[in-house]
Amino acid sequence: MREITLSQAVNEAIAEEMRRDPTVFLLGEDVAEAGTPFKVLSGLVEEFGTERVIDTPISEPGFMGLAVGAAMTGARPIVDLMFGDFIFLIMDQLCNQAAKIHYMSGGKLNVPLVLRTNMGATRRSAAQHSQSLQALVAHIPGLKVAMPSSAYEAKGLMKTAIRDNNPVVIFEDKLMYQDKAPVPEEEYLIPFGVANIKREGKDITLIATSSMVQVAEKAAELLAAEGISAEVIDPRTIVPLDEATLLKSVRKTSRAIVIDEGHQSYGITAEIASRLNEKAFYHLDAPVLRMGAMDVPIPFSPALEDITVPTPEGVAANARRLCAGEMIHAAE
Amino acid sequence: MSPAKKTNSADYLRMYRQMVRIRTFEDNANQLYLSAKMPGLTHMYSGEEAVAVGICEALTDDDRITSTHRGHGHCVAKGADFKQMFCELLGKEEGYCRGKGGSMHIADQSHGNLGANAIVGGSMGIATGSALRAKLMGQDDVTVCFFGDGATAQGLLYEVMNMAALWKLPVIYACENNGYSEYTKTAEIAAGSITARAEAFGIEAFKVDGQDVLAVNELTQKLVARCRKGEGPFFIELETYRYHGHHVGDINRAYYRSKDEEKEWKENRDPIIRFRAWLVEQGIATEEEIEAMNAEVEKDAAAAVAYAEAARYPDVSEVDMHVYAD
Question: Does A72 reach chain B within 8 Å, measured CB to CB?
Answer without folding.
Answer: yes
